């Protein structure tokens, strides 16, 4: 099927999810994914460490005229950098993971993303390399997992199929949303960059405290901590408060801390004050 209406296309290019391709291996596959995106009005393509570099001439013919997406593509070295400005991230994966994450269908994910768009929030979809899919560390950065119900005897789809499926579901939700939304005050979702800074801050202080002393468990412990806070759907204000808590715990508090300890019956050097026993008691 062919046909292009550029006026309508321009209307569709706003508020959609960022499509983040991690470690994509072939330029042709990137081009096919780009064609799938633009079929449904999506233009925010982000490439994380593409195997053959970027730009890739092989992507152009495969994109079949979706040049605007190729031209706007951004390239990042890490997934964390690619999602830094996003408040909600969804990881597409078919494999079971050793972490607790909310799992949704593509249709439910599209509905949630439409809510984010209506609220003026930024969001994106993670897609892994063609052969191996997303790594656990990438999935850990996501707020939820998108799992496609497929034939269990043949549950493999290629990159372009995954992108077109998610893009289609997003497109289909467009006609059912309210025209107006009144956001609540002081509930701006934390971005991935906000959370990354929180994680970095927390890991520095926990390392200083000796929490990660078991080298063989260090990566899993860090991933578990990240998952805990990703599931919390934190606001910017909550992240700021928690970073203040971490700083206070690491530095021993500020002015007035000794007086507060005394009021609570705590020893300034730690422990609990003991009231001296009277003679004969």
UniProtKB/TrEMBL annotation:
Keywords: Cytoplasm, Methyltransferase, S-adenosyl-L-methionine, Transferase, tRNA processing. InterPro entries: Alpha/beta_knot_MTases, RNA_MeTrfase_TrmJ/LasT, SpoU_MeTrfase, tRNA_m1G_MTases_N. It catalyses: uridine(32) in tRNA + S-adenosyl-L-methionine = 2'-O-methyluridine(32) in tRNA + S-adenosyl-L-homocysteine + H(+); cytidine(32) in tRNA + S-adenosyl-L-methionine = 2'-O-methylcytidine(32) in tRNA + S-adenosyl-L-homocysteine + H(+). The gene is trmJ. The keyword Transferase applies. It comes from Paremcibacter congregatus. It is found in: Cytoplasm. Residues 19-168 form the tRNA/rRNA methyltransferase SpoU type domain. One of its GO terms (molecular function) is RNA binding. One of its GO terms (biological process) is tRNA nucleoside ribose methylation. Belongs to the class IV-like SAM-binding methyltransferase superfamily. RNA methyltransferase TrmH family. It is an enzyme of class 2 (transferase). Its EC number is 2.1.1.200. This is tRNA (cytidine/uridine-2'-O-)-methyltransferase TrmJ. Catalyzes the formation of 2'O-methylated cytidine (Cm32) or 2'O-methylated uridine (Um32) at position 32 in tRNA.
């Amino acid at each position: 099927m062919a046909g292009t209406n550029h006026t309508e296309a321009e209307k569709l290019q706003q508020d959609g999810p960022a499509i983040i391709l991690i470690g994509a291996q072939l330029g042709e596959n990137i081009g096919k994914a780009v064609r799938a995106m633009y079929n449904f009005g999506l233009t925010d393509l982000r490439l994380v460490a593409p195997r053959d570099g970027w730009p890739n001439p092989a992507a152009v013919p495969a994109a079949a005229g979706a040049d605007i997406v190729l031209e706007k593509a951004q390239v990042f070295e890490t997934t964390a950098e690619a999602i830094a400005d996003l408040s909600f991230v969804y990881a597409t994966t078919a494999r079971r993971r050793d972490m607790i994450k909310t799992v949704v269908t593509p249709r439910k994910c599209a509905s949630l993303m439409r809510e984010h768009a209506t609220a003026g929030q930024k969001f994106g979809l993670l897609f892994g390399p063609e052969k191996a899919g997303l790594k656990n560390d990438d999935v850990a950065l996501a707020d939820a997992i998108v799992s496609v119900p497929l034939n269990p005897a043949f549950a493999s789809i290629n990159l372009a199929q995954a992108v077109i499926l998610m893009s289609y579901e997003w497109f289909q939700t467009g006609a059912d949303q309210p025209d107006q939304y009144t956001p609540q005050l002081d509930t701006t979702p934390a971005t991935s960059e906000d959370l990354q800074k929180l994680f970095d801050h927390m890991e520095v202080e926990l390392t200083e405290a000796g929490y990660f002393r078991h080298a063989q468990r260090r990566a899993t412990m860090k991933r578990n901590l990240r998952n805990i806070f990703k599931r919390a759907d934190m606001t910017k204000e909550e992240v700021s408060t928690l970073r203040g808590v971490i700083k206070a715990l690491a530095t021993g508090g500020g002015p007035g801390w000794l007086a507060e300890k005394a009021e609570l019956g705590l020893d300034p050097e730690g422990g609990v004050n003991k009231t001296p026993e009277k003679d004969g008691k």
